[in-house]
Amino acid sequence: MPKRKDIKKVLVIGSGPIVIGQAAEFDYAGTQACLALREEGYEVILVNSNPATIMTDTHIADKVYMEPLTLEYVAKIIRYERPDAIVPGLGGQTGLNLAVQLAKKGILEECQVQILGTSFESIERAEDRELFKELCEGLGEPVLPSEIATSIEEGVAVAERIGYPVVLRPAFTLGGTGGGFADDEQELREIMRNALALSPVHQVLVEKSIKGYKEIEYEVMRDANDTAICICCMENIDPVGVHTGDSIVVAPSQTLTNKEFQMLRDSTLKIIRALKIEGGCNVQFALDPLSFKYYLIEVNPRVSRSSALASKASGYPIARVTAKVAVGLTLDEIRLANTPASFEPTLDYIVTKVARFPFDKFSDASNKLGTQMKATGEVMSIGRTMEESLLKAVRSLETGVCHIYHKKFDDWSNDRLLAYIKEPTDDRLYAIAQLIRGGVDLMLIYNNTKIDMFFLEKFKNIVEFERVVAAHKGDRETLREAKRMGFSDKYIGQLWGMTEHEMYRLREREGIFPVYKMIDTCASEFASYVPYFYSTYEDENESVVSQKEKIVVLGSGPIRIGQGVEFDYSTVHAIWSIR
User: Fold this and answer.
1) Residue 223 in 3-state DSSP?
2) Which residues fall within 8 angstroms of residue 165, CB to CB, at 6 or more apart?
3) Do 324 and 36 touch, CB atoms closer than 8 A?
4) Measured over all CA atoms, what is the biggest interatomic distance in the chain, rounded to whole angstroms?
5) Strand 114-115 to strand 85-87: parallel, antiparallel, or no bridges (unpaired)?
6) pLDDT digits (tens), the chain, 579 positions
7) Pseudo-torsion of CA 159, 165, 168, 169, nearest 10°?
8) What is the pTM of this model?
9) 463 neighbors 436 (Cβ within 8 angstroms)
10) How many other CB atoms sit within 10 Å of the CB of residue 237?
11) Check: CATH 2.60.40.1590 for 214-347?
């Protein structure tokens, strides 16, 4: 299907200021969408109130309005600019909610503005808990027993019927805001009061809790032709109960059997076809680790934080493709670097995402993690093994750790550590590693955390290899093996009584250097060259070095309090100027 010719001017709504649960990923998505729409010849009008973003740059859209993201202001802009269409799914929950408000108040109809991509009916069916539940039941897809409550007393009555523990999810809020787990009536009343106040429609879903199930996410794409593909399957290391934005996430999934993977993939594609999603979409599942029983947790009918992760993990530009699908192109017509957009990406490496938390700035705040997102940003790392990928991610966080070791737990007893890991926290990974060093059985750790034994075995591999490294000071083969496993020079130096600089000089003498591998969406199945790389200690180098003069530009790492998307903006400008 060719792109639409009846549309000339398109409005894109940004996501406003960075808040916990809505960070730079929507600037990334919005920027990609604006560039993709202009590439197809459309005039792009952008509204956003955040000056630190790339999307508000004059390079990105034809016109930028720096105005409050409220119904009143955006309605004025629509009446003045008279855009032909609006793209709602790229400005996070803020952009989505605003587009829905504009439709409900009749402003889009008054100004004859069409919605592009996923329709409002589809958005409503995915976002409204009750409608979504009805849809899933109609398709025969399992959803958790749940009921909507509009008052505290109603919530208490629902919980009595369903049985504790329950999880509370306020309707139309971002990043799990106002939700949480309740084990008894007292806890329910406390959470319910806040949840009702925060939900714009004063509705809270009271749902049976399935804490301890595996949490699996699929990032999928569908066009108007009903071509649907699975871009990436991600697995949360933490079980259900921790918001996916806070959990350590790996891609592709590591512990699913082929049967489980295909079962959930089929369910995902069935759901997005039934919802008639057009563009990128994120589907979350809870999977019972002891059977093939699963439940649908939720569907995000828009790009999300997971979409940014899946885009970078797979090399598939989800927001760019979403924008092109919105203007009528089909996946087989959209070209990526070396394949059509209808080609499912293949990964021959492991990606690990670890969240960055603000607890270093707010030491009095509780570092317990739950269904409300607390992370300000995240890091992503790529390696050939789970161990290498995890260790690279941990030291990207810039929190003063260079390994799965934290000095905080040095003098803790095993009993104290076992009690501590029962609740998910920002530093649980280091406490688990300390327990493994203390010789605690993995089954005991599993019982306290419900983290899959596969991941616990991987943590154990790292801890056991620490002893091997310590026992073979200066040995070339041990050093090479440690680097392949992702150990940093700094940590090996601590084990060998050397500085980081001395370790580097030793590697230099021994000729142990990384090679650079390419992310090309097709696991090198086709001849291609995509200049998108990660380092690993193997033999074949895939990065071709040119003879041109070069300048290195350093980014600013994960978003944290005091260092946000404004440094991304300045870095991008530096690159544009240099090029």
Assistant:
1) coil
2) 181, 182, 183, 209, 211
3) yes
4) 75
5) parallel
6) 678 889 999 999 988 888 877 777 888 888 999 999 999 999 999 999 988 888 888 889 999 999 999 999 999 999 999 999 998 877 777 888 898 899 999 999 999 999 888 888 888 888 777 788 888 888 889 988 888 888 989 999 999 988 888 988 888 776 567 788 888 889 989 899 888 888 888 888 888 888 889 999 999 999 999 999 999 999 999 999 899 889 999 999 999 999 999 999 999 999 999 989 999 989 999 999 989 999 998 888 877 778 888 999 998 999 999 999 999 999 999 988 778 899 898 899 999 999 999 888 888 888 999 888 899 889 999 999 999 999 999 999 988 899 999 999 999 999 999 999 999 999 999 999 999 999 999 999 999 999 999 999 999 999 999 999 999 999 999 999 999 999 999 999 999 999 999 999 999 999 999 999 988 777 666 666 778 899 999 999 988 899 999 999 999 888 888 787 888 889 999 999 999
7) -120
8) 0.89
9) yes
10) 28
11) no
CATH number given to 9-116: 3.40.50.20
CATH number corresponding to 145-208: 3.30.1490.20
CATH 1.10.1030.10 assigned to 399-515: yes
The two beta strands, 43-47 and 377-383, are: unpaired
Residue with tokens 């025969």: 140
Q: How many Cα atoms occupy the beta-carbon half-sphere of 148 within 13 Å?
A: 14
The dihedral formed by the CA atoms of 21, 25, 26 and 29, expressed in degrees to the nearest 10: -150
Domain boundaries defined on the chain: 9-116, 145-208, 214-347, 399-515
> Could you please report the per-residue DSSP string of 109-157?
HHTTPEEPSS-HHHHHHHHSHHHHHHHHHHHT--B--EEEESSHHHHHH
Query: What's the CA gap between 162 and 349, in Å, rounded?
Result: 42
